[in-house]
Amino acid sequence: MAILDPADIDKDLSVGEVAERSGVAVSTIHFYESKGLITSWRSSGNQRRFPRDVLRRIAVIKVAQRLGVPLATIAEALKTLPDGRTPTAEDWKRLSAAWKADLDERIAVLTKLRDGLEGCIGCGCLSLGECPLRNPWDELSEDGPGPRLLDPRR
Amino acid sequence: MAILDPADIDKDLSVGEVAERSGVAVSTIHFYESKGLITSWRSSGNQRRFPRDVLRRIAVIKVAQRLGVPLATIAEALKTLPDGRTPTAEDWKRLSAAWKADLDERIAVLTKLRDGLEGCIGCGCLSLGECPLRNPWDELSEDGPGPRLLDPRR
DNA sequence: ATACGACCTCAACTTCACTTGAGGTCAAGA
DNA sequence: TCTTGACCTCAAGTGAAGTTGAGGTCGTAT
């Protein structure tokens, strides 16, 4: 009985059901669980059972990802919620406002970069030390090793 | 004689010299060479020797990366130049203009996303099917599997 | 004579967000 | 009874952009 039966309307969901209703792959759901983003209990046959609110959690995760928030950060944010509850409208307001600030900053950085480029297209010097495009230090200070993943698509 | 001697002023450069003068690590230079972004010949002792214009090539690469252009794309662009010459001011103009268009688009996408978020912060429905934040299809159509790396910093 | 520093190659590791595959369990339907 | 389909675990692969390490060579200075 993989398809929803009206009698089961407020029962917990199997992975397959969660996948179908949330639009993410089963493997992704496993993965999210392994990262602590969602939780489940097990049926007698050792199958995952998810409370319905997992759908809202996944919705929040997906939107945050579109905003460019890394999974680890999302996980942390979700853990700050009282007893790990699924975000209410109030919670969402707080979280999304913080993420919006992030997004705003990223847009500002890119915009500055573009404006710098504007002037450098005609110049073309690219001198380390004189070209604003080659000298990130005035507008960018936070930095660390390794590549960072920030994908606005998806 | 690792340090520059005035008599060698227009000789080719060793990896170490290129690293010092361009500000990128030796390992990165090896890596760029393996990807075909730069080329070298070998000395009698099998050491790399780079023509001076490698510095300008690396400058172009680094700026393009700040603009969010993936290395593979940069490599392609550099290969379109007549007989693989190092970009002249004219070339730079053409390349950077193309990359600026890309950047503009990315900024536009993020801005739209932010505006969508604006309205959704108060709402919080996140419904798959109604919430504009959950439905990328109207503003975003290009897509493929796997994560994409787009880092505005560095 | 030997130590030192700069160089060489090649393989493996890193992060992120997953996906793919191999091999195994479980319950229901023909 | 057998097959099908959904599920399970755990390991390994993907891609981008490098970094790190082991083991070896070269050339010069002491």
UniProtKB/TrEMBL annotation, chains A, B:
Protein name: MerR family redox-sensitive transcriptional activator SoxR
Keyword Transmembrane recorded: no
Record SMART domains: HTH_MERR (SM00422)
Presence of keyword Transcription: yes
Pfam family, one: MerR
Superkingdom as given in the UniProt entry: Bacteria
CDD domains noted in UniProt: HTH_SoxR (cd01110)
Classification via SUPFAM superfamilies: Putative DNA-binding domain
Keywords of this entry: 2Fe-2S, DNA-binding, Iron, Iron-sulfur, Metal-binding, Transcription, Transcription regulation
One of the GO biological process terms: response to oxidative stress
Domain HTH merR-type: 12-80
Originating organism: Azospirillum brasilense
Entry GO MF terms: 2 iron, 2 sulfur cluster binding; DNA binding; DNA-binding transcription factor activity; metal ion binding
